[in-house]
Design brief:
Layout: H1 2-8, H2 11-30, H3 33-53, H4 59-74, H5 80-89, H6 108-113, H7 117-121, H8 129-139, E1 151-159, E2 163-167, E3 174-177, E4 192-199, E5 207-210, H9 211-229, E6 232-241, E7 244-249, E8 252-257, E9 276-285, E10 290-294, H10 296-312, E11 319-327, E12 331-335, E13 340-344, E14 365-373, E15 380-383, E16 404-413, E17 416-422, E18 425-430, E19 452-461, E20 466-470, H11 482-485, E21 491-499, E22 503-509, E23 512-517, E24 539-548, E25 553-557, H12 566-572, E26 578-586, E27 590-595, E28 601-605, E29 622-631, E30 636-640, H13 642-685
Length: about 675
């Protein structure tokens, strides 16, 4: 009841409170200490009893709080004991069950006008529960009666260096820190601001308001409403972030993905920072308090209409203006005003290009021609080079086979090089037409990409738009006077260009190659592969052995640059001679033997490598070998280590046999003499 009376701020109520305070102060001063203590105990028991018996209502604590506040404000000298006694004298309001209350017949003012203040001062109950409920109902919705967590408008009535005092037409004014108005540096007295009723009263009776919380609540209401209704909202782009930008919408930080900025890819996000733009709220996550906005969604609807209009008018061969939207390795995407088309890299230029960026740039405006589109017109094929005349049609009509042309090397392949004679007109120089050499090599050995070279037209087909060129035709054919320069038997020096299993290719000069067979590399060495004897790039002395002008073949020899040493070796390695040699190589069939002071190589069969103790000679072993076969024509020497000690054994065996024969003959002679003597003696006895 006291709380309601104070809210109304009526003069009669103030007088009543003052009179009650004076009366109670005098009563407490005259009372004795024992009486006071008894009153306190009685009050505590009464309060405890009422707490147990009567359920608390929302209004009962408020009544006590108001009385305490009044006593402290009007009579500072009153002690807590005195306050407790005052509380004891307050008429108790019996709790009632919540029931539906009908609209009161009296207004709040009528109720106050008919209130008997004298009876109230005497402590006589002047209102009952029903009247109090009716009075509450009458106050509901009137000025000054607010609910907690409610957002209302307030007026700035005063400002200090740190705070703003806000009037919300309630029983008291609220105070809000100026930190909550940082965004509004122009705040002044008289401005209307949104505030949240955080608490109607704190512990000191002060009204607690919050502008920041009110803005957040209102902002979320606006954002939710914009999401539900599709309303277009304004937002301030604050800064860049990973994958997009941060936008301030109604004071909330929303995320703008990079893909939702525009219908075309955006490469520079900084151009939108600190700008105000229109957005559409596309997603809200209430759990994580995330808001996603889109600027692209606003223009897609308009673009869809434009796209349908453009697609409906498409025709093959139609020329349209567009803007380069994206460049890839395979082509260029062009925006035709809401619909995209692709210009393939082969349709960008009549000339051969490596990347579309060589022809066009991003955001470049250009005219393109419609080459084709599907039935639904969702895939549009465009062309750029078709807007200009084909280069072959502009080619000089006087060009013919045999004419010399100059161009730039556009492409190099293993089989040749493409020479761009005019823009968009290319001719192929096959690798066989680059050099007179019969030994084919890669075109990269002769020309480099971008080189300016001269060539001769070999074939020309304007209908098929094909041209073949040659470079070697610019020089004389070296085989023309080959018999004079390289007669049979002449010695020359050449460069090893390549080798195969059967021989080595030696280049005597550009365009003239000869073959040296493996058998013509050395008189004495046993060569398994040419790479064991010579390397690519080595200089090799050769002799022309055979010349075929028509077949353009040249047979060369290297060993013929020296005399055949096998004539002199026939005496040196005569059969039966013994030489000291070292095993160079060994396999299951036998071993290759080399001799000190001579380049000749001999072969020893595996069975002839056995030593006297029964073991076999191994690779790297040095021993004596006996020549058991020599063939000058086939340059063949066969040796044996076993034959040396076998021959010695044979000699020893012959010696033993000879001695055995001599001893046997001597013994037989003695027996014959004895026989003769015996025979003579027998005759004498007779």
């Amino acid at each position: 009841m006291f709380y309601l009376l104070k809210i109304l701020k009526n003069n009669k109520i103030q007088n009543l409170l003052s009179a009650m305070a004076e009366k109670e102060t005098k009563k407490v001063a005259d009372s004795k200490e024992a009486t006071t203590e008894k009153a306190v105990k009685t009050t505590k028991k009464t309060v405890k009893k009422e707490t147990k018996e009567t359920p608390k209502t929302e209004k009962a604590p408020e009544v006590v709080a108001e009385v305490v506040e009044v006593k402290v404000e009007e009579t500072p000298e009153v002690t807590p004991v005195e306050v407790a006694e005052v509380v004891e004298e307050i008429p108790e309001v019996a709790p009632v069950e919540e029931v539906e209350v009908v609209e009161p017949a009296q207004s709040p003012q009528e109720f106050l006008d008919g209130f008997d203040w004298h009876m109230y001062e005497e402590g006589i109950e002047v209102v009952n529960d029903e009247q109090l409920k009716a009075f509450d109902k009458a106050l509901d919705g009137t000025a000054g009666f607010v609910d907690e967590r409610q957002v209302i408008d307030g007026i700035v009535v005063r400002m200090t260096d740190r705070e703003a005092i806000i009037d919300i037409n309630s029983k008291s004014e609220g105070v809000i820190s100026l930190n909550e108005f940082r965004y509004n540096q122009a705040l002044k007295v008289g401005d209307t601001v949104e505030v949240l009723i955080d608490k109607r009263e704190d512990s000191s009776g002060q009204l607690v308001l919050s502008h920041r919380k009110a803005r957040v609540i209102k902002s979320w209401e606006r954002v939710n409403n914009a999401h539900e209704t599709g309303e277009i909202v304004n937002g301030f782009v604050k800064c860049r972030t990973k994958g997009g930008m941060i936008v301030d919408v109604f004071g909330l930080e929303a995320f703008l993905p990079g893909s939702q900025i525009d219908v075309k890819p955006i490469r520079d996000y900084d151009q939108f920072v600190e700008k105000t733009m229109e957005f559409k709220v596309v997603k809200i996550n209430h759990e994580f308090k995330n808001v996603v906005v889109s600027h692209k969604a606003l223009i897609e609807a308009d673009l869809e209409l434009q796209k349908r209009e453009i697609i409906g008018q498409l025709e093959k061969g139609q020329v349209l203006e567009g803007v380069v939207k994206n460049i890839t390795s395979y082509g260029v995407f062009v925006d035709l005003g809401g619909v995209d088309g692709l210009v393939h890299i082969t349709d960008l230029s009549w000339s051969r290009i490596n990347h579309p960026s060589e022809v066009v740039e991003l955001d470049q405006k250009l005219n393109v021609v419609i080459l084709d589109f599907d039935d639904e017109k969702t895939r549009i094929q465009l062309g750029l080079k078709q807007l200009s005349k084909h280069p072959w049609e502009a080619l000089d009509e006087n060009l013919k086979i045999g004419d010399k042309v100059t161009g730039k090397v556009a492409i190099i392949a293993d089989y040749g090089a493409f020479l761009e004679v005019n823009s968009g007109v290319e001719g192929l120089i096959h690798v066989s037409e680059i050099s007179w050499s019969t030994h084919l090599r890669s075109a990269q050995d002769f020309v480099k990409l971008g080189d300016e070279v001269e060539a001769v037209i070999l074939t020309l087909d304007r209908d098929q738009r094909k041209m073949s060129l040659g470079m070697k035709q610019l020089t004389a054919d070296p085989w023309t006077d080959i018999t004079k320069k390289y007669p049979v038997g002449s010695k020359h020096s050449g460069t090893v260009r390549n080798y195969t299993n059967f021989g080595v290719f030696v280049e005597l000069e550009e365009g003239i190659d000869g073959l040296v067979y493996i058998s013509d590399l050395s008189w004495t060495q046993k060569i398994k592969h040419p790479s064991d004897f010579v390397k690519v790039g080595d200089t090799l002395e050769v002799v022309v052995l055979e010349l075929d002008v028509e077949g353009r073949k040249l047979n060369l020899g290297h060993k013929q640059t020296e005399d055949n040493p096998w004539g002199a070796k026939e005496t040196l390695f005569a059969e039966g001679t013994v030489h000291t040699g070292t095993i160079k190589e060994k396999n299951a069939k036998g071993a290759i033997i080399v001799f000190e002071g001579d380049d000749a190589e001999a072969f020893a069969p595996a069975r002839l490598l056995e030593k006297e103790d029964g073991s076999k000679l191994e690779k790297g072993d040095t021993a004596e070998f006996k020549v058991i076969e020599f063939n000058k024509d086939f340059r063949k020497i066969v040796v044996s280590h076993t034959a040396i000690f076998k021959e010695e054994e044979q000699k020893n065996l012959k010696t033993v046999n000879k001695k055995a024969d001599t001893s046997e003959k001597s013994t037989l002679g003695d027996l014959s003499v004895l026989a003769d003597l015996k025979e003579k003696m027998e005759k004498k006895g007779k």
